[in-house]
């Protein structure tokens, strides 16, 4: 474990990607294949391979208590160490230096076994005992990286893509071959073993393990979109959550995964039946949206929000907020991975998949597709007649022949209550995890608000020593009511300048959070307004981003709660087509 900690420290000490790859490749070559495989998983920021449905379930507060007990440090000293580093692993290294052993015989294999034991253990007490036993054997540097792996926050500038490059360099493989094998297997350690044996080409898709989602790049307007390619597929951009569906003829039959690659099947149980109507093994890409069953249209994200974060989705909430899964791509069909085929071919294959569903139906020419070119196929579940219609919908596709035509389609999509448009190159393959110009997204901010900062928080990692997270409020008469929090948009220089101001204008220091004089006005953009119990206003902004500091405005000129309510009402009841 000492060698792993040392190489992690060295990797974190350089900003050059090529040097990180060189150091890691040399480390892999110096270890046995078993040690190297486990190290590859750890250095990807995980305790276990990505495909495994295993978690440690050891929280930061639990680690905090164990480290404090081992270090014999007060809460104040622990807090001060964390504030200096903005990282629990680095703080553990600092406070354990005077009490932890200077040498150890701990190996990465033993750490992996300890992590398995933690995952199997039941209850906080049992898990804390195992964490304590592991850290007692570790040197301060080993403890630093054990804690980092447990929290999933290495923060050494080492992305999994660089681990893939290091594997390729260490075992004389192609980076593309390593990347593809890891994508299919969801196991960087097993990928390393195949690279060592020269068998990367034997990797096969591991069904019910999500692969990365292809991402889109934003464009400012229709004119810019037309500069990238002549022939494109145009779809509405839906305001829901991205989801990948794995469908098979064996248990668990259907699994849904979010963009963060977390399984969300239990959150949308009514989609299992319609997805089961397909007649072959599939991996589909699409968007889960709240669905208006009478108008056959997607609803704003604020409606879907009512269903998120629930451990159990009752039949009542399913009736209150029906959902649909709008499918726009197919990645695997039958026994073949099809991501290398052009979108034109994948689109035709997806049409055939829907046509072959056991109970295919169609919806009429209104609602979600508006004036698009064809009626989308819908797979209706066998229980559809028992309650609200539940649907898996083939996303409508159109084509634009000019920037003016595309601009018109954008406005129609907005009128349907959707975010905007997706414009996709018909010749493009599906590239998991990559954001390029093959897929473009054209959308408009819902609105902007001028708000006042009421509280600030210390950042994390490289922003550990600046106040970079701003809670902001709108005005309701003489009251200021919080409506959101943002941490992106300002430059490092602006954040440093504002940190000095906030430190000088703090009303109450609550440790990580400071209540500040409500004098700094900022302009924020956002994608949606949602109902929320978290903020005093009763609303929250979705994906807020700071556009600029408004030195030209006073707190008396900020937007009001009434404005927020109007925006919420406008998005909830968009103009009909």
Radius of gyration: 26 Å
Going by CATH, the homologous superfamily of the largest domain would be: DNA ligase/mRNA capping enzyme
The tally of beta strands, per DSSP, is 22
Query: How does CATH name the architecture of the largest domain?
Result: 2-Layer Sandwich
Q: Into which percent range does the helicity of residues fall?
A: 25-40%
User: Structural class of the secondary elements?
Assistant: alpha+beta
Number of helices: 20
End-to-end Cα distance, whole Å, is: 63 Å
- Overall average residue pLDDT: 87
Largest sheet: 9 strands, mixed
**Strand content range:** 15-25%
Task: Write down the CATH topology of the largest domain.
Answer: D-amino Acid Aminotransferase, Chain A, domain 1
Ranges with pLDDT <50 over ≥5 residues? Answer: 361-376, 380-389
């Amino acid at each position: 474990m000492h060698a792993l900690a040392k190489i992690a420290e060295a990797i974190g000490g350089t900003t050059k990607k090529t040097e990180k790859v060189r150091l890691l490749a040399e480390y892999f070559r110096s270890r046995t294949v078993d040690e190297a495989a486990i190290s590859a998983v750890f250095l990807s920021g995980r305790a276990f391979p990505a495909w495994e449905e295993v978690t440690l379930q050891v929280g930061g507060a639990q680690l905090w208590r164990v480290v404090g007990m081992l270090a014999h440090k007060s809460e104040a000293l622990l807090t001060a160490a964390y504030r200096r580093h903005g990282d629990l692993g680095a703080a553990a290294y600092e406070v354990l230096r005077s009490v932890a052993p200077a040498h150890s015989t701990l190996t990465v294999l033993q750490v992996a076994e300890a992590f398995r034991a933690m995952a199997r253990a039941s209850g906080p007490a049992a898990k804390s005992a195992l964490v304590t036993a592991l850290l007692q054997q570790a040197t301060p540097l080993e403890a630093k990286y054990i804690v980092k792996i447990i929290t999933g926050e290495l923060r050494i500038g080492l992305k999994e893509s660089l681990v893939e490059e290091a594997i390729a360099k260490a075992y004389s493989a192609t980076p593309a071959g390593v990347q593809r094998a890891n994508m299919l297997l969801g196991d960087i350690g097993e990928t390393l073993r195949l690279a060592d044996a020269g068998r990367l080409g034997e990797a096969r898709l591991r069904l019910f393990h999500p692969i990365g989602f292809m991402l889109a790049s934003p464009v400012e307007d229709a004119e810019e979109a037309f500069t990238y390619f002549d022939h494109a597929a145009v779809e509405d951009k839906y305001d829901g959550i991205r989801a990948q569906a794995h469908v098979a003829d064996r248990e668990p039959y259907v699994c849904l995964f979010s963009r963060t690659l977390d399984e969300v099947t239990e959150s949308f149980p009514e989609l299992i039946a319609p997805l089961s109507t397909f007649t072959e093994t599939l991996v589909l890409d699409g968007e889960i949206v709240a669905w208006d069953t009478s108008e056959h249209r997607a609803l704003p994200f604020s409606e879907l929000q009512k269903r998120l974060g629930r451990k159990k989705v009752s039949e009542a909430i399913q009736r209150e907020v029906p959902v649909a899964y709008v499918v726009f791509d197919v990645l695997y069909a039958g026994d073949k991975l099809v991501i290398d085929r052009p979108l034109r071919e994948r689109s035709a294959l997806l049409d055939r998949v829907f046509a072959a569903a056991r109970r295919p139906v169609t919806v009429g020419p209104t609602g979600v597709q508006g004036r698009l070119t064809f009626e989308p196929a819908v797979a209706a579940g066998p229980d559809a007649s028992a309650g609200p219609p539940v649907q898996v919908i083939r996303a409508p596709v159109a084509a634009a022949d000019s920037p003016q035509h595309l601009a018109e389609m954008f406005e129609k999509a907005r009128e349907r209550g959707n975010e905007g448009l997706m414009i996709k190159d018909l010749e493009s393959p599906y590239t998991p995890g990559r954001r390029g110009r093959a897929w473009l997204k054209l959308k408009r901010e819902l609105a902007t608000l001028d708000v006042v900062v009421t509280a600030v928080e210390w950042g994390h990692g490289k922003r550990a020593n600046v106040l970079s997270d701003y809670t902001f409020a709108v005005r309701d008469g003489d009251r200021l009511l919080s409506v959101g929090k943002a941490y992106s948009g300002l430059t490092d220089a602006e954040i440093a300048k504002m940190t000095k101001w906030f430190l000088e204008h703090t009303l109450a220091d609550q440790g990580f959070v400071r209540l500040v004089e409500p004098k700094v006005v900022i302009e924020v953009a956002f994608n949606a307004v949602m109902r929320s119990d978290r903020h005093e206003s009763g609303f929250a902004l979705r994906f807020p981003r700071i556009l600029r500091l408004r030195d030209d405005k006073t707190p008396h000129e900020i937007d009001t709660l009434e404005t927020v309510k109007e925006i919420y009402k406008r998005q909830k009841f968009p103009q009909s087509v």
